[in-house]
Amino acid sequence: MRLPGGVLLAACCLALSHAAAAQPAxxxxxxxxxxxxxxxxxxxxxxxYDFFAQNGIKPDIIVVGSSAGDAQQLAGGSVDxxxxxxxxxxxxxxxxxxxxxxxxxxxxxxxxxxxKKGITSVAQLKGKLISIGGPTDITRIFMxxxxxxxxxxxxxxxxxxxxxxxxxxAALVAGAIDxxxxxxxxxxxxxxxxxxxxxxxxxxxxxxxxxxWAVRVSWAQEHSRLVTAFARAHLHAVRWLYDPANRQKxxxxxxxETNTSLDDASKSYDVFVKQVRYFSTNGVFTTPAFKMVLDxxxxxxxxxxxxxxPFYDNRYVTAANAH
Length: 323
Prior knowledge:
- The chain is an alpha/beta fold.
- The chain is about 45% helix and about 15% strand.
- The protein has helices at about 5-20, 40-50, 50-55, 65-75, 85-95, 140-150, 165-175, 185-190, 215-220, 225-240, 245-260, 260-275, 285-300, 315-320, and strands at about 25-35, 55-65, 80-85, 100-105, 110-115, 130, 155-160, 180, 195-200, 210-215.
- The strands form 2 sheets. A 5-stranded mixed β-sheet has the order 2-1-3-10-4, sandwiched between helices. A 5-stranded mixed β-sheet has the order 7-6-8-5-9.
- Helix 2 (about 40-50) packs across helix 10 (about 225-240), helix 2 packs across helix 11 (about 245-260) and helix 10 (about 225-240) crosses helix 14.
- It is globular and about 60 Å long.
- The model is unreliable at about 5-20 (pLDDT under 50).
């Protein structure tokens, strides 16, 4: 029997309304990142290709400008999840911040030491002004190591501080500094403008755990399923990025998000995906790897020897990997 058109239309509308009602509302998660660079590639992917939405998350992404700022915003409750470097995580927790790492984001460190035009070696940095992320930032560990291993002494250089790689790039181009660390795609852009790569962090720290997703401990306990869902979305995006079939889309997205050329974004892909394999595919922290962070901080007298709080919690990413 054929239903009258009006009855059929009403039935379809009712079915659609029931389907919509069955879809749970997305839960907003406020996410702090340091800057718009290739280090947040999976975040752009998870938002663009709905990996967050598929896991019940509506991302609210804010750019803070420094890892220390991310940690402060997180500890103060202004954001739910934050990009925090491993050394900043340890320092914040030592200082009483109620936060913990829940996803190891980075398994490598594609920082390039770029000198202003005319500077082509580390030795030429004697007496120069060098920009790093902060006085106790992870970039301090990297820069101190490179400079001293190339024969310079602490009194041979002066530091100035800027937390975000795009800010340091701008300072370099403006002639305000003599050298700095840059992440792709800004390192590639600097080279295209005639600046020189005078050294690179992967030579000295090939497998250093660099970056994390961190949360407040109390928030994670109250929203354990949401934390796991966030980790799952992130890891899905990492796997998507590492699929060669997605290269063209990934490059175009990075170019759009960082306001860089397709060529610079393509070079970033070669570094992050092919060479360094920057993003951890399982997000799991390991004791031997994290010990590298703690040992480096001890050498710089940044770690309280008597302090041994839990710096990371693998339960959420373990659950994410199980699905």
